[in-house]
Amino acid sequence: MAKITFDGIEIEVPDGTTILNAARKIGGNIVPPAMCYYTPIKGTGGKCRACLVKVAAGSAKDPRPMPKLVPSCITTVQDGMVVENTTNQSVLDVRKGIVEMLLINHPLDCPVCDQAGECDLQNFAFEHGVATTRYEEERRTFEKIDIGPYIQLHMTRCILCYRCVYTADQLTERRVHGVLGRGDAAEIGTYIDNIIDQDFSGNVIDVCPVGALTDKTWRFKSRVWFTKPVNAHRDCGNPKCSGNVVLWYKGKDVLRVTARKDEYGEVKEWICNECRFEKKETADWTLEGPAHIDSSSVISANHYELPVVNPQVIADLPESSVRDLENNPPLKLGR
Amino acid sequence: MESTTATVKPQFSEAAKAEIARLFEHYPAERRKSALLPILHIAQAEFGGWVSPEVQDLVAETIGILPIEVYEVSSFYTMFNLKPVGQHVLEICRTGPCMLRGSDELTAQLERLTGAKVGETSSDGLFTLKEVECLAACGTAPIVQVREKYYEQLDTPEAVDAMLAELRNLVHRPLLPWEQTGLAHSQQ
Amino acid sequence: MGRKLLTEHINVPGIDTFEVYRKHGGYRSVEKALKTMTPDEVVEEVKKSGLRGRGGAGFPTGMKWSFLAKPEGVPRHLVCNADESEPGTFKDRELMTKLPHLLIEGMITSSYALGANTSYIYIRGELLYVLRILERAIAEAYAKGYLGKNILGSGYDLDLHVHPGGGAYICGEETALLESLEGKRGNPRNKPPFPAVQGLYARPTVVNNVESIAAVVPIVNDGGDEYAKIGIGKSTGTKLISACGHLNKPGIYEIELGVPVEEFIYSDEYCGGIWKGRDLKAVVAGGSSVPILPKELILKTAAGENRLMTYESLSDGGFVTGTMLGSGGFIAMDETTCIVRNTWSFSRFYHHESCGQCSPCREGTGWLEKVLHRLEHGHGHMHDIDLLVSVAKQIEGNTICPLGEAAAWPVAAAVRHFRHEFEWHVTNPKEATRPGAYFSAKAALV
């Protein structure tokens, strides 16, 4: 075990834990943002530099500070390590710079992007960025590409986190897409016309932090905050598929199916393409109840979780919620 | 060598196959992918100065890796031409030290003399112009690389003319070491 | 005339063959090391020599060697970094072309010291013709029993292979080089783990520059102490300087560290002064990534002392008034040179060569180039100049590998020392692009 101090808070974690995961154990707004790191996928992390933190003391044995900021997602803790994140102005300044770098070639087409409302880059920019841009040059653009019947690649929005590449490597039988080219001309692609139709390939949509890989069956159907996420499961015949999903309802219609994500947007249980793309009827699923989405998310703003709480116990229920509750009586759970 | 077409699956010559077998011995058996860059060089030399998707698939098959692993690499390194090229690719260094000794003028001169702009191939199919970054020969700048040869100190019209004349008279590309060892080859 | 430890016989006809090289004292270090020294004793001599990595970072070679992990039963590797591509640097190409056996000898002696039985020379792909030269020389060494099984009856085995890159400056970064040697994209790895622990094929690996490995030969032949007698302070031995740009005699010079910069530029023994009878304007002393210095500051330190060709003297004054010896790529610019255009060219280089893995470098290098392109072509604003400094600062220190710094430093230094020239480009947009325009405008004012 190693005891570290993170933003003044002491915590003990097993040896080999990364600084980021130690911070996540503490939780709250001291947790560094992560745009490329993804716990369940090996090899991710260290690229976007969003999670850089200051190590003010390396360890109890060697308390010297580390000369440069370190990526908290791949740097492991040492006993006696002292880490500064929100308590260090230079860390926050650098992070502001990272937001700026990630946005200079991002199209800012949130109003027409399916990812808006559940976009890591949007959240990152909102929390750590500035409202203006100093970038006057032309932005990099790419044509949209359909890679197979289910997934659309909108490379212009990509921040080259490499998550989808590692995901395809680790989840599918035969990876057909990768990072091509280099520098700011690097792109996610299949090189030749090729379709990503491996089973489990749909998971690249869930791991994508932005709207670069989107679900074609859900394209332009609704804004995400107008839908209501409901946990559900089915007995999927595929042994590698968990069958545990979130159904995104608008009225009685299931508009899309995704894997379940934790509060850091990470999928712990993968789902197969059949569950994701072909089971869009309530009858296909056993419903469990509303999926909890982090309260700060725009998705939770439509109070979809209220139907399962008893409104009487909440003293100051907003008027909109009362109305919402009257118009949309609680979902009938179970099959 | 003729460039490949989509209908005919490309094959390495016997000489190239022997060279590839030699290369595989340089790396641990479970690390054959290490031979990817040297094999791409061989492929480019064998198949008309560029590596088509079919040629890259052949490279993947030869090593036993996924085609995407080859595409990722071939598109990362600038020496591999992913589109058809002319008989001679003139790689003109444009970086600072060459710029100080007149690489801008050299590029303009080559564009005039060949009729091709940077990134294009001359109408006679002889020359493709390509700008590259530092070739590590700054002391004899400005320079042009053509295949395995460096043409240095191209700061006079005479030197440039001499280079182009030499290349114009070169009907076939020079044989590479592994092609010279008695194995039958189309260009012998 | 300084001593030449590496290049004494470089112009001897046939020195690229085993016989002639051997006749001039070649392969003595292999015999001495394998027959009379333990591997640790070789490492000790290299430590004593004070040799610092000749690729650019200047890290003590002996110390790097002593960091190599030696777990039981795991093969170790020595990899020679012959991916020379830092603009202004062209010494290794010359060394390998003319003295292939010197590098091979250094590889054998160094591999023995490190306990490596398979070693690689990673050479940049553009130098395929040099790869052929090295492979021919390696074949000779095998034939003469200096490579292969049981070298010189010592029981030590070594296989040596040459591996070409494919055109990517970033592969000069040691972990990108190892990725490339594994047949992958040249994406630098996050560190730790360092190559000394997990390098090639996740095995302990030392990566050294060509010149560093060549220097091991005289160090073992004459002893580390003897080597350390040359030079000044912590800058020991000789160094190959590749001199280019507006010099009368550009080329490669082996100098004893400590030669005054002024002597190096102007004496006939070295560069013979500035071409066309012109005045010197600025120098980039250690490859394009190190800070540019104006004439006054490259000849003398801010304190007025003579600037010497040593690691310490060139970095005197930090980045405010100093620079770095780096790789020894010495680029001189005459008075007509446009600093903005030159900075743009360097920026374009780093933009082109960024691997694109981490966001500050991928996006920042492109941003710098675009702003500099606008300034150079008469479309700049005054606020662009501070923007350049700010973007450079946002990249520096926040990237996976040192390419970020390499891209940021030249821009920041150019603005630091030549801000007036950037401002002139903003206020004189119509003339900005014309070569030498700033020089003639300045001359007209005098």
UniProtKB/TrEMBL annotation, chain A:
One of its GO terms (molecular function) is 4 iron, 4 sulfur cluster binding. Transmembrane segments: none annotated. CDD domains: fer2 (cd00207). Pfam families: Fer2_4, Fer4_Nqo3, NADH-G_4Fe-4S_3. The lineage of its organism: Bacteria, Pseudomonadati, Bacteroidota, Cytophagia, Cytophagales. Belongs to the complex I 75 kDa subunit family. This is 2Fe-2S iron-sulfur cluster binding domain-containing protein. SUPFAM superfamilies: 2Fe-2S ferredoxin-like (SSF54292), 4Fe-4S ferredoxins (SSF54862). Residues 2-89 form the 2Fe-2S ferredoxin-type domain. The keyword Aminoacyl-tRNA synthetase does not apply. GO terms for cellular component: membrane. It comes from Hymenobacter jeollabukensis. Its main location: membrane. Keywords: 2Fe-2S, 4Fe-4S, Iron, Iron-sulfur, Membrane, Metal-binding, NAD, Translocase. Residues 90-129 form the 4Fe-4S His(Cys)3-ligated-type domain. Its cofactor is [4Fe-4S] cluster; [2Fe-2S] cluster.
Automatic annotation (TrEMBL), chain B:
InterPro entries: NuoE-like, NuoE_dom, NuoE_N, Thioredoxin-like_sf. Belongs to the complex I 24 kDa subunit family. CDD domains: TRX_Fd_NuoE. Its cofactor is [2Fe-2S] cluster. Binds 1 [2Fe-2S] cluster. The keyword Iron applies. The lineage of its organism: Bacteria, Pseudomonadati, Bacteroidota, Cytophagia, Cytophagales. Keywords: 2Fe-2S, Iron, Iron-sulfur, Metal-binding. [2Fe-2S] cluster binds at C93, C98, C134, C138. This is NAD(P)H-dependent oxidoreductase subunit E. It comes from the Bacteria. Gene3D superfamilies: Glutaredoxin, NADH-quinone oxidoreductase subunit E. GO terms for molecular function: 2 iron, 2 sulfur cluster binding; metal ion binding; NADH dehydrogenase activity.
From TrEMBL, chain C:
Its EC number is 7.1.1.-. The keyword NAD applies. NDH-1 shuttles electrons from NADH, via FMN and iron-sulfur (Fe-S) centers, to quinones in the respiratory chain. Belongs to the complex I 51 kDa subunit family. It comes from the Bacteria. Keywords: 4Fe-4S, Flavoprotein, FMN, Iron, Iron-sulfur, Metal-binding, NAD, Oxidoreductase, Quinone, Translocase. It catalyses: a quinone + NADH + 5 H(+)(in) = a quinol + NAD(+) + 4 H(+)(out). This is NADH-quinone oxidoreductase subunit F. PROSITE patterns: COMPLEX1_51K_2 (PS00645). GO terms for molecular function: 4 iron, 4 sulfur cluster binding; FMN binding; metal ion binding; NAD binding; NADH dehydrogenase (ubiquinone) activity; NADH dehydrogenase activity; quinone binding. Its cofactor is [4Fe-4S] cluster; FMN. One of its GO terms (biological process) is cellular respiration. It is an enzyme of class 7 (translocase). Pfam families: Complex1_51K (PF01512), NADH_4Fe-4S (PF10589). The gene is nuoF.
